[in-house]
Design a protein that fits this description.
With 135 residues, the protein is mainly alpha-helical. Helix content is 78%, strand content 0%. It has one domain. It contains 7 helices and no strands. It is globular and about 45 Å long.
Length: 135
């Protein structure tokens, strides 16, 4: 079985989302320091394009925090992922992540736990791994 080779940005975002998934699972928060640590390699590797993608996704997804549909940490994770992946690849990543998060969400709904919150970062990590494998 041949494993897909990862580019440097893919490897960086996988490491980043792994750390975020662990902290989100245990603390339900994404530390700002973690976000900052992964902004620097993206800015260095990809330059102004990285920052433009980051800003675009932040502006698109931040309003969802006002309705409590996403946490602010989730928006930051999505923004950094978009910065590393690019827009086409980001859409594949987002689709895979949200599709993987749908199953536990439906189970919680069927059990009558409508207000239950699930950490999104582990599903973002899964979406990232799936999009890296698909590319």
């Amino acid at each position: 079985m041949n494993l897909p080779s990862l580019s440097i940005p893919e490897a960086v975002i996988l490491i980043f989302l792994s750390a975020a998934a662990v902290t989100d699972l245990f603390t339900r928060k994404i530390p700002n320091l973690l976000i900052l640590l992964f902004l620097f390699p993206g800015g260095f590797l990809l330059g102004p394009v990285f920052l433009g993608r980051l800003l675009l996704i932040t502006l698109l997804f931040y309003p969802l925090t006002r309705f409590r549909l996403l946490g602010a940490g989730d928006v930051k994770l999505l923004s950094v992922a978009a910065g590393y992946f690019g827009m086409n690849r980001f859409l594949l990543f987002l689709f895979a992540a949200l599709l993987s998060a749908a199953l536990p969400s439906v189970i919680l709904l069927l059990r009558g736990r409508r207000r239950a919150r699930i950490p999104l970062a582990p599903f973002l990590l899964l979406g990232c791994a799936l999009s890296c494998a698909a590319a």
